[in-house]
Amino acid sequence: MVIHMHNKYVLKVKNDYQNVSDLITKEIKISSFKKLYLFYLESVSSSSLVNDFFLKNITLLNALKHKSLHKIINIIPAPNTKTISYEDINFYLTNGFTIVIYNKEIIAFETKADITRSIAEPTTEQSIFGPKDAFTENIQINIGLLKRRIKSPNLKNKSLFIGKHTNTLVEVLYMDNIAEIDNVNYITRKLSKINIDGIIDSGTINEYLSLNSKTPFPTIIKTERPDLVSSSLLEGKIAIFVDTSPFILITPAFFTDYINPITDNFDKYLNVNIIKIIRFICFFITMMLPGIYISLINYNPEAIPTTLLLNFAMQRDLVPFPSLIEALILLFAYEILRESNIRSPSPYGNAISILGALILGEASVEAGFVSPIMIIVIAITFISSLIFTEQELINAARYFRILFLVGASLYGLYGILLIFIFFGIHLSEIKTLEKPYLYPISPFNKAYLFKTLLKPKITNDTKRSKMLTKKNLTKQEVK
Amino acid sequence: MKIKILLLIISLIPLTSCFDYKELNNRFIIEGIGIDYIDNEYVVTYEIVNTSKKEDKSMSSITINGKDKILSNAFNNANIKLSKEPTLSHTKVLLISEDLAKKGLEEVLLYIIREPSIPHNIYPIITANPPKDIIENNKNTELISEAIKNMIEKNDHNDSIITHESFISFVSDVINPLKDGYLNYLNIEEDEPIIKSISLFKDDKLITTLNKKESSILEVLTNKSKYYLTEVSCTEDKIINIGLYQNNSTKIIPKDNSININTTLNATILEDECNLDFRNPDTINNLIPKVEEKINKELESIYNTLLNYNIDTLGIKDIYYKKNKNKDFNYQTITPSFNTTVHLKRNGLIFEVIPNA
């Protein structure tokens, strides 16, 4: 009868993992009638750990004669040992645990293989003087990188497993004594509603959390920098870690957060503030410059100094296309260049850049295809966009760039004004974690404004934003 | 919602300002306008910048003109000859022939005020030669309009140019019954344009044109002088040449039966043919009153010229009206008193050549 019960569990596991070649099964005879079954997935578990923790200690099995599996659970030298039910087998097996089945009992002990890359430098948000470590695909390493920076028991996390097949571990991290627990609950509630086959990386979670905001602007920060996550948590924000993703999500994220990368923290505030203002101006340049150029030359040439206008006119002579079409052609060409540069391996990237620069910069002008001034306008537009690390922000600027271009070609400067009003209304409508996206510009908050749009003197950075926390506003006490 | 968006987009189409849309290569940029009156007809001449691509990237011009008895038709006749849309918003100068100015500029002024595309900060200039000839026969590498504009705005050493007498300030002088206007006067000398005198107006009609010396003194009186030259003689054939700089320092102070015209000028000795000993303070103390007296005489002379022509370029009637609220005040009955103060800069005056050094 007992043998029959054993076979039922084992047969079910074997049946579930039919045609799964990395499942290792071991049968260990305890007595004439009793067998112990051991399962692990070779791809995610370490055979040597299985040996060290269990097989080398096979003498322990003597303790099993006429006794329960629970007796040895405390003797197995593995760091993480659990008694589990049959329903949990799949979860533990795929997470690198080794499963032991004996009689009706099942235990799992952790034998996870080290299949993660080492900590590398950030590739998307580089800094000259900042820390050089970036998150990896391993969630435990990622949380470790964070805990190296915040050594406090107040750093709490809520764990969820999302994805019917992937069972991806998602951790919501927050500072218990700073962040508003309502915000944490709001996020966990939203995450627990996700019922999908699989979560492959944090991008999917990002999409789920941004479902309500119909905007091209990013409402959640994606970062691979542990220092940014740490400082955000200390401000009262919430971080979402997704296993297998090196990009951590931070929410809420306001418009001004994207203009100011964490790397500014490593420079003097007097120097950084100039850069911050330039960056803010660059956002408007990248969004509006082609539109303003089109409206000025086609509707309001009187606003351009005569000498400059004459230069423009001489350069545009013999260009067969209207300036709008000329701008669209160049924008399209630059988008192709940017996309091909991002996707192609770096040796090709250089070749593409040279080819693009030659074709667009020299040959197209020589061929009378476009005017040199339009190349300058579009080049300034694109160079301005490269200041920002967040791709979504660059894409949002592109969306509005086209709107400004159309508005300018239909209405001139009046069209620019109309689209700018629409842009302002649109930004005011966006919510991030139920908070206004334009904060701290509207509603105005001096404390947060000086921390985002400008960098304050370190001794003046004493308060947290009331929008992010209400229970712990004091950041530092200056003596 | 979709229907609303569709309706919004459709409603935008008739509202678009595409009618105003004009590509840059479909525009003719006009830098100068000349207006003449020949054989009872207005002749309007455009100086258009040739923006066609050239190897040497030099700037040349195209000239187009139109004629008619009515000024607006003359402009229209010039416009219809153009193959591209005329863009008048970058017009810099308005050349008006002396003959037309003597006939009266009312029609020209009204047309330009009513024409929204012509900027009101253009420089109106009276020309001795017909504007058509000046524009068409330009042998300069620079456009004639550009050259004149630069001459007015950038040449601080031309003591006969009124720097800021734009179209709108001239019009405000013309329509003001208590003040008369004046404009720069352009000559062509050896194929080069030159401004060295000022034309005086009574209402909208040109009355007279001053010579170079008178023009530069008038500028001291009107507070627009930047640089002005005068000389005092020490012997019969030897002079001391003096450069004078003004900095908005002329004040016209009305009294009951007299008017005080006070001026302060900074002076520099430019040439000393008399070999004065400037190391001796008495030399300078003796020289300064002479210079002041000379300038007072020059100012009085131009003041009397204005009185003779019954032209109130200085706006004395306006000044008295502001004081007494009396429009019928006869400014010719009052006695002017000129008080000039000269501050002599001594830099470079105390060099002494040591014999046999």
Summarize, please.
The complex is a heterodimer of chains A (479) and B (357). With 479 residues, chain A is of the alpha+beta class. Chain A has 17 helices and twelve strands.
Structure commentary:
The complex is a heterodimer of chains A (479) and B (357). In chain A, helix 10 packs antiparallel against helix 14 (372-385), helix 10 runs parallel beside helix 15 and helix 12 (323-343) runs antiparallel to helix 13. Chain A is α+β, with helices and mostly antiparallel strands. In chain A, a hairpin with a 5-residue loop joins strand 6 (155-162) and strand 7. Chain A folds into three domains: 2-110, no CATH class; 139-253, no CATH class; 265-436, no CATH class. Chain A has helices at 2-16, 47-53, 70-73, 89-94, 139-147, 181-192, 202-209, 226-235, 255-259, 269-298, 306-316, 323-343, 346-366, 372-385, 391-411, 413-429, 446-452; strands at residues 23-29, 35-41, 81-83, 97-102, 105-110, 155-162, 168-175, 221-223, 238-242, 248-251, 431-432, 435-436. In chain A, strands 1-2-4-5-3 form a five-stranded antiparallel beta sheet. Chain A has a five-stranded antiparallel beta sheet with strand order 6-7-9-10-8, sandwiched between helices. In chain A, strands 11-12 form a two-stranded antiparallel ribbon. Chain B has 357 residues and is of the alpha/beta class. Chain B folds into two domains: 23-209; 212-350, GMP Synthetase, Chain A, domain 3, CATH 3.30.300. Chain B is built from ten helices and 14 strands. Chain B has helices at residues 2-15, 71-79, 98-103, 106-114, 131-136, 144-154, 167-175, 212-221, 281-308, 316-324; strands at 27-38, 41-50, 60-68, 85-87, 93-97, 123-127, 182-189, 192-202, 205-209, 228-233, 239-246, 251-254, 258-272, 335-345. In chain B, strands 1, 2, 3, 4, 5, 6, 7, 8 and 9 form a nine-stranded mixed beta sheet that branches. In chain B, strands 10, 11, 12, 13 and 14 form a five-stranded mixed beta sheet that branches. In chain B, strand 10 and strand 11 (239-246) form a beta hairpin.
